[in-house]
Design a protein that fits this description.
- The protein is α+β, with helices and mostly antiparallel strands.
- The radius of gyration is 20 Å and the shape is elongated.
- Helix 4 crosses helix 6 and helix 4 packs across helix 7.
- The strands form 3 sheets. It has a two-stranded antiparallel ribbon. The protein has a two-stranded antiparallel sheet with strand order 3-6. Strands 4-5 form a two-stranded antiparallel ribbon.
- 37% of the residues lie in helices and 14% in strands.
């Protein structure tokens, strides 16, 4: 019982859509709450418990939870690079486990490297070094154009309250928001879905 209770406290979301027309099949947000508490006016004690819960059970994480997309974002990077003619499916890069940029090294999840990798294998094995290279070729602003075209960076328009739009960074955004110029190393990070990138589960499944 104790283990089950702890597991239910983990936060997360599931979004499922019909790929034929984009209609939503299921949205799940965890932890959740009992909506019948509101049927005839919620008790003050229950309201305080819900509103003060650090896990925010009343937040619909499927549409308002904003998270780094991680390796799922590599598909967007690949599509952008192919469309721009920067790579072909046969374009290959060597992965020895890291990518050097100046005096900094960006690691691949496979510490011993993947060797010579072309696009298909880079996607199948989720090679970070491949996408570091591709992200450097594309640049942050061009990548943002394609991310926006896939529906990131703005709400999907689903008829549910408090949907968030996420964040797809650009040079202008960072200069305006943080008063700092964009760094190439930040492009390397966003190319694998890290850094400033934020998306909702619904945006991700829609893309």
């Amino acid at each position: 019982h104790r283990q089950r209770r702890i597991a239910l406290r983990h936060d997360g979301a599931v979004a499922a859509i019909d790929p034929r027309d984009g209609s939503v099949l299921a949205l799940v947000s965890s932890p959740s709450f009992d909506p019948t508490l509101f049927n005839s006016g919620i008790l003050l004690e229950d309201w305080q418990k819900l509103s003060g819960d650090p896990y925010h059970p009343m937040e619909n994480r499927a549409v308002s939870g904003q998270y780094p997309p991680g390796s799922t974002y590599k598909m967007i990077v690949a599509a952008a690079a192919l469309q721009e003619g920067l790579i072909t499916p046969d374009t290959a890069f060597n992965c020895d486990g890291s990518f050097a940029l100046g005096n900094r090294k960006f690691r691949c999840w496979q510490k011993h490297g993947h060797g010579r990798v072309s696009l298909h294998r880079a996607i199948v094995e989720s090679c970070d070094v491949y996408f570091y290279n591709v992200g450097k070729l594309i640049g942050v602003d061009k990548l943002a154009e394609y991310a926006n075209a896939f529906g990131f960076g703005q709400p999907t328009g689903i008829s549910l309250p408090r949907e968030k739009g996420g964040l797809i960074p650009t040079k202008a955004w960072k200069l305006s928001k943080l008063k700092q110029p964009w760094q190439l190393g930040e492009t390397i990070s966003i190319a694998i879905g890290q850094g400033f990138n934020l998306v909702t589960p619904l945006q991700l499944v829609s893309a």
